[in-house]
Design goal:
This protein has 5 helices and 9 strands.
């Protein structure tokens, strides 16, 4: 159950059914090192589903890109321990980015196997949808591995539609699209 009490924009306390308490908040530059350090908390399947390939570590370049989103065109949220940025272990990351020259944004979410199945992905997705609506976009979409049933079911439960065989999707991926004008 998520709660919000007079916190800065995009900040929210999240208490998982397991009892674990997290803070959902915008990513900060100080999160680069903890994010790289926590990368091992993400299982091989989770990393493959997000990065679409086997990746053993988060590169300095990728960490830099994630921790410095452009406020006009991107949002990147983390679910972390309620500690200071730079000290908190990051257990999930959600990002949406407007595609230049369009009224669309692409999303990606990565949740640690230790936090999966507790509603965190749903809460992060809701925040990405809220951000996209606030930017007056036409649609939000993401590519999901066709065998990632939890993410496919989550997206569908939030109104996303499955687009099989989309020309931009690589083999084994499904494009999940939410039309935001409804």
């Amino acid at each position: 159950m998520a709660t919000r009490n007079r916190m800065p924009p995009w900040h929210e306390h999240f208490k998982a059914p397991s009892g674990r308490e997290l803070l959902i908040r915008p990513i900060r530059p100080e999160d680069a090192a903890p994010l790289q350090g926590a990368f091992s908390l993400f299982g091989p399947e989770e990393v493959r589903d997000r990065f679409l390939q086997a990746v053993n570590e988060l590169s300095d370049q990728t960490a830099e890109r994630l921790t410095h989103p452009s406020p006009k065109t991107e949002i990147c949220l983390v679910a972390a321990e309620p500690e200071n940025p730079g000290e908190a272990v990051v257990g999930a990351i959600a990002r949406a980015s407007i595609i230049p020259g369009t009224r669309e944004a692409e999303y990606a979410i990565l949740v640690s196997r230790f936090l999966a199945g507790q509603g965190l992905g749903r809460q992060l997705m809701r925040k990405l949808v809220k951000w996209a609506r606030g930017k007056y976009l036409d649609r939000l979409y993401g590519y999901v591995a066709e065998d990632n049933l939890p993410m496919l079911q989550l997206a569908q439960s939030l109104g996303f539609e499955r687009v099989d065989n989309h020309p931009d999707a690589a083999s084994g991926l499904v494009r999940m699209v939410l039309e935001l004008d409804t």
